[in-house]
Amino acid sequence: MFARVALLVLKKDIAIELRSYEIISTTTFFAAACVTIFSFAFTRDDETMAMSAAGIVWIAIAFSGTLALSRTFERERYGETLKALLLAPASRPAIYVGKLLGILCLIFATEILVVPMVALMFQSPLFNRPGMLLGLLVTGTIGYAAVGTLFAAMLVRARTRDVMLPILLYPITIPVIIAGVEGTTALMLSPPDEAMASLWLALLAFFDVVFVTLSLWMFEPLMTE
Description:
By secondary structure, the chain is an all-alpha fold. It contains 8 helices and no strands. The chain has one domain (2-224).
């Protein structure tokens, strides 16, 4: 029953997005604009440009992820969808997991555009170890989205939600962003430092377990209040 509810919520979110492409088009355009601006802002030094790529990737993911979270729950507020889900006889943690999976799909779709774009515009060896890079992106995105989904749902009825979401989200997710940047940078060294990248990957996996567990535990009382 838990998995069925989560998949139904995910299916609903994907179906709504496929009708309008509102959020995915907004987030991808915003992320691409961030990367383009940063590519012109940095000095044209090959080494500086290449080593800045890791930070730019994760900044674009964080900013576009915040936009995706805000727009997704704004849409829920206008349609009273989240209220209807909470009134339904369904597990609250399952609703949270469904919303989390929907957010992850949006952010992953943005990353498919952003990562190759950064590698091209910053002339960086991001794909030296594609398997480990994928692991860093997946674990880092899950940790970021787990906290973001909880806060965005909690603030859905707040008047200052657009201001409060980044204020609450960024301080909590700083360890995730730092671990992602450091792990990605380790993969771009010559030769790649796989041991260091593996250490940061393990740390991101630990953050995922902690953040997802706490979010599942806190979602129902926060939404009830």
